[in-house]
């Protein structure tokens, strides 16, 4: 019997010679890295509009179907399942990738709901704009929090209830015409799929600079509107994944663009996750609603909901706020896109928006999550993994890995190594909104980063930080075991190894 080829895995499981050689190389292109090839071979993540002979045949099973690509969380969950993760045994893993807050009791917060009434009427379809009483409760909360003393006030006619934030984005995208749409890099991973799927939105990127703490340059944005004809600006604020926030005069100037012929769409799902330095500032939040002059003429669209701030992602109850004529359009797009939000859950949400209850919930959340943020930052500091730009908002840490030894100095490879340690994070390249997927991943400004969520409970965070320590300990000894031998699928299929 002949000895195994240097390009074949040995029967003992010892890494192939080719793997070891590759693992100590300083990769410069995605074709040299196994982690990057796994990503590219996943349906929807190849280069768009490639020549027919280069298209992944797995995407051609149904004529006319084009895979949009999965969001970062879905891709990472699938890769984790290939490495043994199951939701039934999730306590054995640390999931620092899921963009969700812990949903249980936290100190000094109102009690969690344990039951939901089901009146007979709630078994009917809800209106595509949502239950009127909930829409009115949303309007009242925003008026109470951000618009006291202003002549123009929101009413239920300015609110559309939607079944989740992505549904809200999709409804809005479906009613936007053929326009240039500005977005920033890095930003929320789902924008990639929105801009890919709704072809009438012509994507125009702006790369945010870490040297300015990923701050959006409003003056440059105004120039871009004039010179490039931008009609829509899409952004998360506070920003996922960098944990930074536009507020004060900067937010006021951004909102003012909505009175100058540009529509501003702001994803404000983390508006409560603000971490003040002074104790007296706890309980404050940020929203563009504070700076809107006329709620029916300023072209500013706000998307938010129960998912993050109320820590109720399972409710799938969110909202879009804007001028009345926008809400009419969203009702029409919702009628064919999603059919509306869950009726009983909408009714259950109404008392949760009572302003005095919200005030207690908001302060408890900020104190609890700030403590978790500081705990994770301290653990990373102890590992000499200091965060370049610590988050002042959201529950994410945008961690630069570029100072680590190759090949774990990029997000995709570090992610794969953490999977071996039962820990999930999100590689930074998912926040490089790049609808055509053409760029060499190594050239992405997000390539050297991962996003860490400190949304989960503290014990999960510590389990994940322990995994970080194990990977770094192995890296100090040698890196020959890194960069290869990754499981390709749940059944262990190793086809296509480089």
UniProtKB/TrEMBL annotation:
GO terms for biological process: amino acid metabolic process. One of its GO terms (molecular function) is transaminase activity. Its cofactor is pyridoxal 5'-phosphate. Pfam families: Aminotran_1_2. This is Pyridoxal phosphate-dependent transferase. Keywords: Aminotransferase, Pyridoxal phosphate, Transferase. Belongs to the class-I pyridoxal-phosphate-dependent aminotransferase family. SUPFAM superfamilies: PLP-dependent transferases (SSF53383). InterPro entries: Aminotransferase_I/II_large, AspAT/PAT-like, PyrdxlP-dep_Trfase, PyrdxlP-dep_Trfase_major. Gene3D superfamilies: Type I PLP-dependent aspartate aminotransferase-like (Major domain). Residues 95-467 form the Aminotransferase class I/classII large domain.
